[in-house]
Automatic annotation (TrEMBL):
Pfam families from the UniProt entry: HTH_26
Domain HTH cro/C1-type: 16-70
GO molecular function, one term: DNA binding
Coiled-coil portions: none
Identification of the protein by name: Helix-turn-helix transcriptional regulator
UniProt xrefs under InterPro entries: Cro/C1-type_HTH, Lambda_DNA-bd_dom_sf
Length: 115
């Protein structure tokens, strides 16, 4: 299990990796171009450590994009997932509160008589 489990951190890693793959760049190539050690990079994409802003800036330059775009894309993905999780929990809670058989014998009998 990784140390950094926030949706945002996971999405930053995902965005970096997707952009690296889109450019057909190997991890070794990215590490050489950014000066980030290979082991350090692997620790970061596993979530054992976090990328710092200097590293995100260097990665973005090598990948040909603005570092703010990496963070913005990660933020948008994390928010969408967070909203979806919240909606799922709310729906599950709502299901437990509505249209269920009665808790008392009289309520149960009335429920069973419904068409």
């Amino acid at each position: 299990m990784s140390k950094y489990e926030s949706l945002f951190t996971q999405r930053v890693i995902e965005v970096i990796e997707n952009r690296r793959r889109d450019r057909n760049m190997t991890i070794d190539d990215l590490c050489a171009a950014t000066g980030i050690g290979r082991n350090s990079y692997y620790n970061k994409i596993r979530g054992d450590r976090c990328f710092n802003t200097e590293e995100i800036d260097a990665i973005a330059r090598v990948l040909g994009c603005d570092p703010f775009l990496i963070l913005e894309e990660a933020s948008a993905k994390a928010q969408i997932e967070s909203d979806a999780q919240l909606a799922k929990k709310a729906f599950a809670r709502m299901q437990t509160l509505v249209a269920k058989p009665g808790d008392t014998k009289a309520e149960q009998e009335a429920y069973e008589e419904l068409p």
